[in-house]
Structures are given as C-alpha cells and as structure tokens.
Amino acid sequence: MHFVKDHLTTQRVEDIYPATALQTGLLALSLRQHGSYQACIPLRLPPHINLDRLKRAWETTVEKNAILRTRLIQNACGQVYQAVLLSEKLEWYEATSLDDDSQTSSFWKTEFEGLDCPQFPLLPTAHYTPSITDTLEHTLEHHGSFSPFTLSTIVRLARATVISVYARSDEVVFGATVAGRSVPVPGIEDMTGPTIATVLIRVKIDPFQHINGALEDIRASGVRMIPFEQAGLQLIRTLSPETA
Q1: What's the structural domain count of the chain?
Q2: Sequence-separated (6 or more) residues with CB below 8 Å from residue 25
Q3: Coil, helix or strand for 14?
Q4: Residue 153 domain boundaries
Q5: Would you say residue 242 lies in a domain?
Q6: Domain membership flag for residue 37
Q7: Alpha helices of the chain — where are they, by DSSP H?
Q8: Could you tell me whether strands 70-74 and 171-178 are parallel, antiparallel, or unpaired per DSSP bridges?
Q9: Domain match, 76 and 106 both
Q10: Same domain for 105 and 51?
C-alpha cells in the first residue's frame, strides 16, 4: 500500500479496513462529478462564544470518533480502503463488517433471476447523467396504530404502482436508501459513521392481490435483504444480465 499521493506514512495510521460499498460508491461519484457529496454548513456564532473552547471541543470530537480521522485511499489494483489516522490536525481558517461475498452475490442473483421489465424512465443515452434542477417536499402522516406496516413499506408499494402504470409493466425495479442499522451488530444504533446503503427493490404488481398481501410481500422482501444490503450497486450490477 502506498500513501504517496496523500502524503501519509504508515506511522500515522492507526488501522486500515476495506471501504464499505457505500464509501466506494460515493468516492467514485465524487471523482466523476466534482463537488458532489460535499457539504459546507455555515453557522453564525454569537459574540460571546469562546473560540478556544470551541476549537478544543471539535478537536476532542475528532479524537473520540475514528470516522472523523478516516481517509479513503486506493491501491494500484483499484481497491479502496479506509485508513484511520492516529491523529488529525484540524486546520482553522479565520474568514468574514465484512460480508460473505459468495452469499451476498448468490442472494442478489436469485433476487433478480428472470427479471423482465423495461427501463424507466428512458434516458437519452447510455452514459447520460441526470442533473437535479428542482425539488418537491411533502410531509406524510403515518398512524402506526391503524396499520402493521411501516411508512417505508407503504411508500414502496405506492411507488411501484406508479412506475408500473407509466412503464406499462407488471414488474418494476427501483432504488431505495436504507438506514443500514438493522443488521445484528452490537451497538449499531449508537455507532458513529455512515451505515446507509442503496438497495434495489423488485416488485411484481398483481392487480388481483389484496393490498395487505402486496404490502406483506414488500415487507418480507426488505427483511430478507437486510444481511445483504451493504453489497452496493457497483457489485450488484456485475452479477448477472438481469442485475446489470
């Protein structure tokens, strides 16, 4: 492993792990589209704030949370790793689990076996990258006491139904972002670091099926994929013609 480009030495590294599928995907997208997945959050501080204490607080936060001392690096073979530094000096400016790959691959290949649905929406070219120009926000109220299904499950069925109508297909596939905190890892709820993942949802629309049955199918599908949801779209698309 070479740290030349990032000016790192092995003496500065506390530990090193394979990057998660999410980290690898975000890195690839940020390299392709400069400025993506970066945030700049300005905060107005009141005049009485003690800047020295504020700096010490941030330095302590970085010291206590390894994810804030982590850098993504890539070896000569293209594999991406996350290197945790022993320490990270903050620059201040004054200004106005490793998964079983074979089981994971088998799950996703089986999940999309026999898939036959049109692409929706159709893009102008194979390499076309959509650019968001507008946003729409809507608040949904979910009264859990009246339904055994989560709002996420209900929205997935609604989305699948809409796509089915527009694509004129009784089978649809779409992407969904999950929290990634349902895996059986002790303390995952309190873990500091990125756990979200993007998964593909396959839904077969049966116009004669009761809505509760359709919701139960989607719920069960989501539960089945929990152990494999960190695979990442980069891996899934290479597994078979159906997942490409």
Answers
A1: 2
A2: 198, 232, 233, 234
A3: strand
A4: 101-236
A5: no
A6: yes
A7: 21-32, 51-64, 101-111, 151-167, 211-224, 233-236
A8: unpaired
A9: no
A10: no
- Same-domain check for residues 106 and 76: no
Q: Are residues 142 and 203 in the same domain?
A: yes
Cα gap 122→200, rounded to integer Å: 18
Q: According to the model, what pLDDT value does residue 244 have?
A: 78
Q: Three-class SS of residue 58?
A: helix
pTM over 0.90: no
Helix/strand/coil for 60 = helix
The 10 Å Cβ neighbour count of residue 216 is: 15
- Which of the residues in the chain have pLDDT under 70? 1-7, 35, 94-100, 143-145
DSSP per-residue letters across 126-181: TT----------------GGG-SS-HHHHHHHHHHHHHHHHHT-SEEEEEEEE---
Measuring CA to CA, how many Å separate 97 from each of 19, 66, 76, 233? Answer: 10, 16, 23, 17
The pLDDT value recorded for residue 186 is 80
Residue 203 near residue 218 (C-beta atoms within 8 A): yes
pLDDT in tens, 146-193: 778 999 999 999 999 999 999 999 999 999 999 998 887 788 888 888
Q: Residue 214 domain-assigned?
A: yes
16 and 44 in a single domain? The answer is: yes
